[in-house]
Amino acid sequence: MKLANLLEQKKSQIVARWINLLYDSYPPETAIFLKKEKDKFDNPIGYGISRGLNGLFETLVQEMEAEQILAALDEVIRIRALQDCFPSQALAFIFLLKNIVREELAEELEKENLLEELQELDARIDGLSLLGFDVYTRRQEKLQEMRINEVKNRVSGFLRKSGMSMNDM
Amino acid sequence: MAKVPKPSELLPGISYQPPAKGWMDVKPDFRPGTYCNPAAPKWMEWIGYPYPQARSIPDNNWGLPDNWQEIVLQGMEDRLDRFRSLKVFFDICVRCGACADKCHFFLGTGDPKNMPVLRAELLRSVYRRYFKKIGRVLGEIAGARDLSEDVIKEWFFYLYQCTICRRCSLFCPYGIDMAEMTLLGRELLASIGLNIDWAMASVAQCYDKGSHIGATPQAFKDMIDFLAEENERITGITTTPSYNRKGAEVLFVTPSGDYFADPGSFTLMGYLLLFEYIGLDYTFSTYAAEGGNFGWFISHEMGKRLNSKIYAEAKRLGVKWILGGECGHMWRVCNQYMPTYYGEPVNFLEEPVSPITGTRFENAKVHKMVHISEFTADLIKNGKLNFDPQRNAHIKLTFHDSCNTARGMGIFEEPRYIINNVLPEGNFVEMPPNTIREKTFCCGSSSGINASENMELRMQGGMPRANAVRFVHEKYGVNHLGCICALDRATLPTLLEYWIPEVDVTGITEMVGNALIFPDELERTTDLRDRPLVGFEEAAEEDAEEGE
After folding, report:
1. Residue boundaries of the structural domains of chain A
2. Are A93 and B11 inside 8 Å of each other by CB?
3. Which residues in chain B come in under a pLDDT of 70?
4. Contact assignment for A45 to B463 by CB distance below 8 Å
5. Which domains does chain B have, with CATH numbers?
């Protein structure tokens, strides 16, 4: 439990570093903008990433319902699923947390005997990443579904006239 | 042999810095989902556009004509001669960066070349190289570059990632209009055979058959008759549209999205009810069966060709003026470009006067076309419509200002005035000020790029809009996004399905149709979509059970 307390205490530093690291994966000009612009409507990527990573961190330090964990993952992954070519790139951000925790808590980890708790945290980050693949796949399926729905939608009035509904197709 | 990468190595900028490159050396990444397919040759042949050929983006060879450089440079020279604005926009930019973070495509993709200042530079660099002495002499040092096939590919990629929405120009201290540069850049691409299929198919169908979706006159009439029958079933009111009727006072033109696709079709039901209520002497035309103008997304010449169909029909039918439905770019073409297209006002039509209120629409004296929102707001202002707002009590609305009607022609108050009259008090909530009115965020799919193959791009471009919708949904329980543009009604449902599926899209005249009280109507238990009104939910459930 010592590690959980430490994570709580250092939450803001750890999450800020996580967010900034993800911003750095964008082109340099964009990374500067994402870090600088604080208005959530003028910086929707920054807002989504910040909201998502804060939520994800909570899932690691608190007990949460499965749906809440998936929703927190979805906050970031639905942005990354559009922007990154491969799932490995879209999901790499989750694994970055392991190193961040080690670096931010380096002193404490050395002083206290926290190896077991650290292993537990690593395992949970791994679990989060695996769930991330589920979320990513759902988002990809959603995009394909939307493509199909849009084709149907273009003639939806005509379908209605013919006595058919979108769901019949 | 390679080592398995660490997670941090999968992302540039984290454990390694990619070598610094100037913007000219960064090539576009044509990954699936981010670009539109090139136009099929048959559409180009239909409208007589040059160099029709089957093309594929992943192919290295895009099949450009042998003298493509000459064509593009000559085209640029012609346009610099014809449009002083283009020359000014090329020369005057001081790269202050005020526009850089104002484009929804930059905000959604994070791609620096979607910063308007840099997108313009894609064209400007070629202008400098061939039309400015300093660029000819100093080349890259002066921000100039040779016109290569790679440059053309980059133009194709980024000029179809601009929706001509003009949000950036609002923030430019010089008023540089990126939309104008995008349009002329697209013209240059079209001159060497590069067009996008989704827009070109719509244009060819409209030119040949009368509407973007290629509906025949019979299908057009059938569909509107069906919507009139739906009105009668739900409200008990017989609406009586007429077609190609000579001598009608008004020609009504609306985009095809309003009669073939939901939720636009519910808006069309609203139009029919409104016109019946006030006894408007109007006609539809099967020839001018399209209010939208995808031609303008390809070239000014094509924009004029499609626009002229509406006016030729108005002349043939002998109407006094034209009333237009809830459309965006139809209005931008009329307000912003018609005087330039034709060189004179439309002289064979009358300055529009509402036959119900006597209001003279002086703002339409050049093009003689009135927007349905202006027309309806005037009717309400003069006390000509009787509403029961409770019939819209199930709708908690926020309003999306469509770029073309808002920034393009200044329609801000009229739709809001209508909304406040047809909704119960408290059911209308604005999105944050930096996302509405003249600062509105684009739907991300306009200007002909609402194809399906570029879905990932569209979802990124629409992210800023969806983000603001989500805010009012979470904070105020908003469940509908209203708009007065048919392209919005076609694309926003898809955008919201990805980002905020709890919110539906509605036209404003649909809600007018819901709320209008006719003297001899049926008791209304549902709205025009057959959804139960507040207070009638149980009856609807019972009906559904009986149906089963």
Report:
1. 2-144
2. yes
3. 1, 16-18, 547-548
4. yes
5. 24-195 (1.10.1060), 202-515 (no CATH)
